Amino acid sequence: MNLELEWLTFKGVILRHFKEFVSYRTSVFATIIWPLPLLALNVYQYLGLASGQQVGQVLNAKYGIASFSGMIILGTIVYLLYNRMLWGTGASLQEERFNGTIESLFLTPANRMTVLLASGFSSLLEGAWWIVGVFLLSWVIFGVQPAIADWGAVIIALISTMIALIAVGVFFASFFVLTRAADQLATSLQAPIRYASGVAFPVAALPAVFQLFAYILPVTYGINALRSTVVQEGTLISLVGTLAPLYIFTAILIVAGHFILKRVEAQAKRNGSLYKI
Amino acid sequence: MGYAFDLDVFRGSYRYSMLQTFRYMNAGFFVGLQVLGPIFFLLTSWTILQIIGPSALTTFTTTSGYADYIPFVILGFAFQAVIMNAVWSGANGIRNEQQAGTVEAIFVTPSSKVAWMLGKIAGNITMALVSTSIILTVGSLVFSFTLRTTPNILAATIGVLLTLAGMTAFAFALAGLTFLAKRADDINQVLWTSLVFFTGLAFPVEALPQWAQAISWIFPITHGLAITRGAILKGYSIFDPTLLFPVVSILILTLLYIPIGYFSFRTFFDKARKKGALTGY
């Protein structure tokens, strides 16, 4: 592996994605605006049924969650980033296929995994506003005060969640191109994952069958890690139980993504069907 | 070109729209957006109700005037397909043609573009009605609620039809905007979430702050939903004084939005032609 070449590939993909992103003013505008209605919707699904104070009391008594809005905000941030991964990185190879450029991409000597990892990283960069912006909005609108005991734990939880989300994107990119139905799978997965990963409530509140599903989703662990460190004064030690499965899933998804991608390439060489949509 | 030709264009566009929905390429969108989406939103509302417990129903009844939350929310999310139709059908119709490189070919034919667009929207409306029926059936079976009164089906149907007419105007305006803004997906994502928030699908509009309630009244779907909920959950007829405000509002808004939608579509389309931006994506 030539690190200089890998870096060039990585940089090239990021630059390309960035240029594509800023070329459409609507994309930039939507990225800035979208958290607002999503956050409001998640909050008002509760406030339509009880006052903020009542909800806070119930969540604290039943699930030990001290901040209702903090819980929603962190769930929403991770969901937004996951969504960006699903559509940005997950659908990236399918997008190449639609654009008629997938064959050219697979003919270059560039490392496929580097291309996908760079795509994931650029998706995170595009979504970075959400982390800063949503926190600012939460502070201004909801007066959310973070309860942080260990800043190191917050940074590690955030970085680990991002790494896991990139792995999710890489896996989906390979899987989607194999199934040729990226957009449809991404669309179909949005709602079930939003529900099961506990974006709007703790996973413990889900019916048992969905809790089982929740624990195979890296998004669940990402949300838990951030909730624990940002609004529940979690420390690095208390985070181990959440981060361990998060990294296990990250490793599984990266390895699975790598092998599926190899299969896609082999299949393309064998029957020349890569460009087909 | 006469009306017979326009009707042919409408029919062709409608058939194309229906075929596209069920083809391998697009069936997943229907399932994902119009079936799984509302069902999981419904589950979210149900889970939140379980979390808060019985006190939630008291607050809900005081705010909305309805006795049960679950039928209220099932009817709300059954309307999600109508929203999806409004925000996606026209815009996506244009976007798909842009991506396939066929938009110019379509727009140089002598066919009526309005008939063509109406055909696309009608195809989506048909699917929206299918999805609405699925959500109502699944919701009723899974959550097994019982209606406290005999529903007024005629009034509910009028509510749905008026909503569809009002939201079709939105579809036209958005379709026109897609000529210039290109990224229909991004616009739709923001709009869809905003509409679900403002129109009271998951919670009573009365729970929103005053300024947000004022915004919610500009959407025909808010009034359509009030009519349909009133008709099904309380058995109101369309002439019931309680439904006077939503009925009059939706009629006025629809009459207002149809020409606005049409002229927005024409304006954006002409602008795109002048800029040579019709095919660019």
Structural class of the secondary elements of chain A? mainly alpha
Oligomeric state: heterodimer
User: Over the alpha carbons, how many angstroms does the gyration radius of chain A reach?
Assistant: 20 Å
Give the uncertain stretches of chain A in residue-range form.
none
Question: Between the first and last Cα atoms of chain A, what is the distance in angstroms?
Answer: 32 Å
Helix fraction of chain A by DSSP (H/I, runs of at least 4): over 70%
Give the amount of beta strand of chain A, in percent. under 5%
Amino- and carboxy-terminal Cα gap of chain B = 31 Å
Q: pLDDT below 50 for ≥5 consecutive residues: which ranges of chain B?
A: none
Number of H/I helices of chain A:
13
Describe the structure.
The complex is a heterodimer of chains A (about 280) and B (about 280). Chain A is mainly α. Chain A is about 80% helix and about 0% strand. In chain A, helix 5 (about 70-90) packs antiparallel against helix 10, helix 6 (about 90-100) packs parallel to helix 9 (about 150-180) and helix 9 runs antiparallel to helix 10. The longest helix of chain A is centred in the last third of the chain and has 36 residues, at about 235-270. Chain B is an all-alpha fold. In chain B, about 80% of the residues lie in helices and about 0% in strands. Chain B has helices at about 5-20, 25-50, 55-65, 70-80, 80-100, 105-110, 115-145, 155-180, 185-200, 210-215, 220-235, 245-275. In chain B, helix 2 (about 25-50) runs antiparallel to helix 4 (about 70-80) and helix 8 runs parallel beside helix 12. Chain B is elongated, with a radius of gyration of 19 Å. The interface between A and B is large, with 46 and 47 residues.
Primary descriptors:
heterodimer, A: 277 residues, mainly alpha, B: 281 residues
